[in-house]
Amino acid sequence: MLENIDLSKVITNEEYKENMKTLQVELGELQRKAWELKIPIIIVFEGWYASGMGEDINRFILPLDPRGFDFHTMTSPCYKERQKPFLLRFWSRIPIKGRIGIFDRSWYSRAIIELFGKEKDELTLEKTLEEITFFERQLADDGYLILKFFLHISEKEQKERFKEIKRRGIHLILEEYEGKNGNESDFIDDYEEYLPVVEKVLERTDLPYAPWTIIEANDRNFAVLKIMARVSQAIETCIEKVTRTPGQETIKYLNMKTLKLAELNSSTLDKVDLSKNLPIEEYRESKTFFQSRLETLQYELFRKRRSAVIIFEGWDAAGKGGNIHRLVEELNPRLYRVVPVGPPNDTEKAHQYLWRFCNGAPMAGHISIFDRSWYGRVLVERVEGISTEEEWRRAYREINEFEKILAGSGAIILKFWLHIDRETQLERFESRQKDLKKRWKITEEDWRNREKWDEYKTAVDEMLQKTSTIDAPWIVVESRDKRYSRVKVLKTVVETIEKELGT
């Protein structure tokens, strides 16, 4: 989830000031309307220490009417709180209907610090995360709007900020950083050690009724504007749902087009270096080497009864077919299967959408290669309006759970997104139309999809963020140069299987 976040996002002081004026007015108006409608709102702020949470929260609450929100800083529990079930201290701070409850750290960081802590108690943490999902679902079912923000900075940025904190002698933070509060210093100091724990918590609790928004917090101006824009959008959407009558829509409080700034979403795809290429001789040598190694590894998989699930997603004309062909070129067909995925038939539509993929799951010791997959739910079905927003948002959790089941059975999961730019896609489309042998590859649907490039890009970015897990991470493949793309896929498959098998 966090590995795909672009921390280079920056907003200038001029952009910040200009757009802040618009957001402050709109947020104040939305708060008053939510109070009139008795909509209860919970806003959770979590993040790395020194991520700027205190300053960002302060900037966020300045335009709010202080009579309409409660602010809670969740530090170490008192003696009485320790004698009660973990979540009760948070239940007692839930706002009444119409008010906003703002949590400066919450049940999440307290669970990591208190229940995971030095003992690294995975089972207790897992049980608590399950209880937290019950807690949040019950609140959402009762009409609470729940917004959760995680302020993300790099380890390098954190260290630089700690140096500045020490230089300035900020006592409140130094007291925690220097270990005067017990287990708190563990969570502060060990960024690399706690990164997978934080990832796990975010993955397990990113739910349709209580989603996480990752805030790129290296630049404070960007972080504050993104927080305010997300809160405004969410409250506005909630107001519309509450007040909408059949055939009627409420007035838009916040017109995002009035915000004169770059897109606030972090785009993994914008960071991809598509200039990478591979000379023909190096390509041939590398392809032969990795194909030969993979041929041997498939028998090791069979001997050790380990399966592999390899998923290919990507832009139309990004080279999925060519990559799959090179991947299986030297394999034994008795030990692998390519599963092409198209639109569901009537029988498949009559089932839960993951049902049709169960038959393609590999037996122990075998390999299944999916040419497109269950990710159609959050890509084409989302963009084309085939699934409702509730359905495709819920699908992130469902897909993660499905893949966790596969991984739990011993499957090695590799997911490739083949990335090209718009210009390269157009060149390949036009080339296919001119080539009689390849014309079958291009359809009217491909051209229609191309017109919605920006919508698909937004969907892909969210997919990469929300479904890249410890069990099944996404690998973005630079595919403008086909030779580079094919070797990267082969190399990644080989090295991942070798690592999993310990060979």
Question: Could you describe the 3D structure shown?
Answer:
The chain is α/β, with parallel strands linked by helices. It has 2 domains: 2-258, Rossmann fold; 275-501, Rossmann fold (3-Layer(aba) Sandwich). Helix content is 51%, strand content 12%. The protein has 21 helices and 10 strands. The protein has helices at residues 13-36, 53-61, 79-82, 88-91, 107-116, 122-141, 155-168, 171-177, 184-189, 191-204, 220-243, 280-304, 320-328, 346-349, 355-358, 380-383, 389-408, 422-434, 444-451, 453-467, 482-501, and strands at 41-47, 69-73, 100-104, 145-152, 212-216, 308-314, 336-340, 367-371, 412-419, 474-478. Helix 2 (53-61) packs across helix 11 (220-243), helix 5 (107-116) runs antiparallel to helix 6 and helix 13 packs across helix 21 (482-501). The mean pLDDT is 88.
List descriptors.
503 residues, alpha/beta, Rossmann fold, 2 domains, five-stranded parallel β-sheet, 21 helices, 10 strands, 12% strand, globular
Number of alpha- plus pi-helical segments:
21
Number of strands: 10
Kindly provide the name of the CATH class of the largest domain.
Answer: Alpha Beta
What would you call the structural class? Answer: alpha/beta
Layout of secondary structure:
Layout: H1 13-36, E1 41-47, H2 53-61, E2 69-73, H3 79-82, H4 88-91, E3 100-104, H5 107-116, H6 122-141, E4 145-152, H7 155-168, H8 171-177, H9 184-189, H10 191-204, E5 212-216, H11 220-243, H12 280-304, E6 308-314, H13 320-328, E7 336-340, H14 346-349, H15 355-358, E8 367-371, H16 380-383, H17 389-408, E9 412-419, H18 422-434, H19 444-451, H20 453-467, E10 474-478, H21 482-501
Parallel strand pairs: 1-3, 1-4, 2-3, 4-5, 6-8, 6-9, 7-8, 9-10
Helix pairs in contact: 1-11, 2-11, 5-6, 12-21, 13-21
